[in-house]
Amino acid sequence: MLDQIPNLSQYPLNNFFLIAGPCAVESEALLMEVAEKVCKITERLQIPYIFKSSYRKANRSRLDSFTGIGDEAALKMLRKVSETFGIPVTTDIHTDEEAARAAQYVDVLQIPAFLCRQTSLLIAAADTGKAVSVKKGQFMSAEAMQYAVEKIRQSGNEKVMLIERGTTFGYQDLVIDYRGIPVMQSFKVPVVLDCTHSLQQPNQASGVTGGQPALIETVAKAAIAVGTDGLFIETHPKPSEAKSDGANMLPLERLEGLLERLSAVRDAII
User: Which domain holds residue 99?
Assistant: First the structure.
């Protein structure tokens, strides 16, 4: 599946691949800064790279939360990242109508965790012919995700991957069950661990989701040891100033060292 994504086949796919970028499109300058930095790191380490940023934030805790700079403007910025750096880009979609529109600009359509059972959305994404990444719902077992995969395949699209992002544990926490990675790999799809959203602490009284970014390296190392195909890491030059999910993102300056250590783990187990 990965070799069918434009520009992703420049490196041998015997390493884990990376999906990374700022949570939301805040400005063109931010996207370019992050993409340039991450491209240099992944090129040196021979890690296949997909740039990620949300052109619209539809699932927000409060009405006054940041939702985006405008759909058309944000999507054009994502396409510019792809064209400038020669890398595939991905963004999430939330309605059937968004699928065809976003597909004009991005290479991979991401289905949010809360919508992973939304049949019409999965079909709409599949019908674009783009690769589709589906986040496992916090309320779903790994075994049940085979049906999301089947919906996409039965719609004529074989380019699908699954993303583990933790399971609801009480009201304000998530837990990662690493047994789910080989279970979902048994569906013959790449499986990715979302190292940032798996560490969210949702439903805070403040209306702003919390997180534990200090544990990103811990969960990422465990995922590599288990044999995950890819990692999803949201990153930002100044997470404390980010307009969305700042509590979860990895500071951009820490990404290079982290990927070096993760590459060493991968080399040790293959």
Answer: 2-6+16-269
Which DSSP string corresponds to 103-140? HTT-SEEEEPGGGTT-HHHHHHHHHTTSEEEEEPPTT-
Indicate the pTM of the whole model: 0.93
- Residue 225's H or E segment, with its range, is helix 216-226
pLDDT, tens digit (0-9, with 9 covering 90-100), for 41-72: 999 999 999 999 999 987 766 676 777 899 99
Residue 50: inside a domain: yes
Q: Is 11 within a domain?
A: no
CA 235, CA 71: separation in Å to the nearest integer? 21
- Find, among 210, 149, 135, 174, the residue nearest to 1 by Cα: 149
Domain for residue 72, yes or no?
A: yes
Cα distances (angstroms) measured from residue 167 to each of 146, 175, 257, 270: 17, 5, 28, 28
Number of domains in the chain: 1
